[in-house]
Amino acid sequence: MNTPAIVTEKLSRRFGDLVAVDQMDLAVEGGQFFGFLGPNGAGKSTTIKMLTGLLAPSSGRMRLLGLDFERNLLDVKRQIGVVPEGLGLLERLTGAEFLRFTAQMYGLDRRTASQRAAELLDFMQLADRPKSVIADYSHGMQKKLALAAAVIHGPKILFLDEPFEGVDALAAGALKAMLQRMTARGVTIFLTSHVLEIVERLCSHVAIIHKGRLVAQGSLEELRAGVAASSALAGPHARVDGDKLTLEQIFVSIVGEEGGRRPMEELSWLM
Amino acid sequence: MADVVRPPGLASQVFLIARLRWAIFRNRLRQRNAVLELIGLIISGGLSAAFILGIGTGVAGGAYYLAAKSRFDLLAYLFWGIFLAWHLFPVMMSSFTIQFDFRSLLRFPLTLRAFYILSLAYGLADPAALGSLLWCLCLLGGVAFARPGLFPAALLVVAVFAAMNVVLDRMIGAWLERLLARRRAREALVALFILMMVGLQFSGMIGERFGPRLFSGRFNLLSYLRPLPPGLAGAGLEAAAGSDPAMLFSATAGVAGYGVLFGYFLWRRLRAQYRGEDLSESRAPSKPAPAAQQVAGEAAAISALAAWLPGPVAAMAGKELHYLLRNTITLMNLFVPPLISVFLAYQVGHISRLAARSAHTAMPSEFLFPGLIGYILLIVTAPAYNCFAYDGRGIQTYLVAPVRFSEILLGKNLATGLVLCFEALVTGTLLSFLIGRPPFAMLMATLGGVVFVALMQLTVGNLTSLYYPRRLEFGQLRNQRASGITVLILLGMQIGLILVVSGVFLVTRWLAGLWATFGLFLMLSVGAAAIYRAILEKCSAIGLAQREVLTEKLIR
């Protein structure tokens, strides 16, 4: 049996009185394209930050690729790639300089770093502005560069926080194809996105976090079966698209009713 | 349709803007959780207030004196002073002013006229404008006290002059915003400003040498400047005192004419903003360059310097050198210290000559060389106290990469060391020409002191960088300072190190000679190196523990 790519046990993170992530038990198998969903403020970014070493957990354990995160921090980091929320770019370097810098930070030799940087810039269609510093890039270009930096060392797990936001359709298509090829080769991709259509199209497995707690986890089929079996189907959001629920319907049925939203009637002055 | 019954009046909108500025200021204070930061703000605010009131008293006194002595021809100098301060003061007050993108108000349903008037009102609420307005009132008060009969005319002239300045201030601000939207223009302006400041250091030298010729006809200067707004305002008051109403009104009309002209240019700028002008720096992609060019385009010199270092350390040192060459402020740090050392060498030499002439004991010039090198050392190592300042969001890359903070800091420290070597070499060469080559023993003692001080500075700097980081922006002067605690620690270290180094020099120099100084510094350096290494190793754990502080302070 393969070693799971990501396992968390009772993972929690508190900020003062606020419990951002609460006793999370998550399991992601190797080679999965894994979607991590949740409403705003649910704890997605906090979870990703903990899983990538940007934030220390308050309690609980994390194992990535079979290694305890805290005890094998550098070994784990060598095998993961991250596009963090703020992109993590050094804005006064050129794209090529930043990629070479990142590659060297991951231990690649200078020749390999230069070669891969050039190939990635070409692939991401960023090679036409060799002298521009990153601060002069558009948001979409910065996003593509951050993605290039995340894969330059050939990671075994890739963490992507809203990777397609601001990226043009052509580039997004190429990126999706690249990511799918990576999962076919055994790379695990951990993706968060608010665009549920993208998650539904790309991801084989999904977890939903709400108010810091993991409220659902499994393959899309398992989630559909779970929702269909539950009494939540009787609610107003339980429309069925053909024989299958869409991911949006699954998501809404799980977290929508708990969201505390006011009924539309209360905003009568707006309509 | 939106159910807005009645759009808010202009007065309400102006009131809303005033309240907005107050709210921004108040919230800014709330964010400062460190008491020292708040104390720093109070001190700088108090000093600014004292400065404004002090100048105001001077303006009032000057105006009173000139009016009482009927020297109205010189009042233009006061107008010139206020005029220059009004438009230069915002730069001086930069760390105290409130940041707000005025154009963001355009999301609201404002007419162009309302936007224009709000812009003027917003400019009027600026501390610099308020200070200048106060000085105008002081000038008016001084004249009115000396010559009460002139009050109506003075009121007219000062009011028109102040209104013209409000418009000009906003016009300069709006056009500067347009100009500075481009990063390169922004950095060029900062470089120009720093050069100007450095140039001022040399004004004394130039004045001493060329002063008599340069300023011999300074009172004729006014006649050349008379057609400009402050000159016209002065001429208006002079005419009022000379009972020449035609000249009074034509001069005042001239000032008002300038106001209208500036108002027109402001209108053009605001109209462009109102119509949705895009100040973005991003350009359309140019023609593709072959991938091979990317590799060939690598900054070979910088890479070669870092080639002998281990991977991540080399990458970090190379990155630091790239950043150094692209940051106007840090780049200026390469050139300014040697220039200042030349200035100081001249000043100290001058004082020594004066002392010798007046039969006092001349200053020991043998200490000039180590003193100036030490001065350069303190300037160059100061940024190491906040070494992540310009990394911003890039700190995330350090945190997710498989590297220790000790490697990151070592790379940064090596880059600082390289800059220090360059600076010391340039300054040492310059000083050798200016004040003569120091004895070999003095050179070695100085080098020993440099190594000791640099190691101590970098050791403490690494800790303050991790514990009290503060983000700084490239090519900007506003709010560009390290945290209050860092500044205090830096100051304490500098004073402490100056005392230690001076003590070592003085005691060993007179008791056992300069080679003993070198020997003692060598021993101190060995100790400092051991401390540096021990602390550097601990920095990996400290960096991990501080990761949330680092991301919070550097990313926001």
Characterize the structure shown.
The complex is a heterodimer of chains A (271) and B (556). The N and C termini of chain A lie far apart (57 Å). Chain A contains 9 helices and 10 strands. The mean pLDDT of chain A is 84. Helices cover 35% and strands 23% of the residues of chain A. Chain A has 271 residues and is α/β, with parallel strands linked by helices. Chain B has 556 residues and is mainly alpha-helical. Residues 94-99 and 281-298 of chain B have low confidence and may be disordered.
Number of helices of chain B: 22
Spell the H/E element sequence of chain A.
EEEHEEHEHHHEHEHEEHH
Compute the number of strand runs of chain A. 10
User: What is the mean pLDDT of chain A?
Assistant: 84
Terminal Cα span of chain B = 38 Å
Which outline of chain B best applies?
A: globular
Morphology of chain A: globular
Could you tell me the mean pLDDT of chain B?
A: 78
Please give the most extensive interface between any two protein chains, plus how many residues each contributes. A-B, 53 and 54 residues
Oligomer: heterodimer
End-to-end separation of chain A in angstroms reads 57 Å
> How large is the count of helical segments of chain A?
9
Main sheet properties of chain A: 6 strands, mixed
Reading the helices and strands of chain B in chain order gives: HHHHHHHHHHHHHHHHHHHHHH
Low-pLDDT windows of residues of chain B? 94-99, 281-298
Poorly predicted spans of chain A: none
SSE-based structural type of chain B: mainly alpha
Share of helical residues of chain B: over 70%
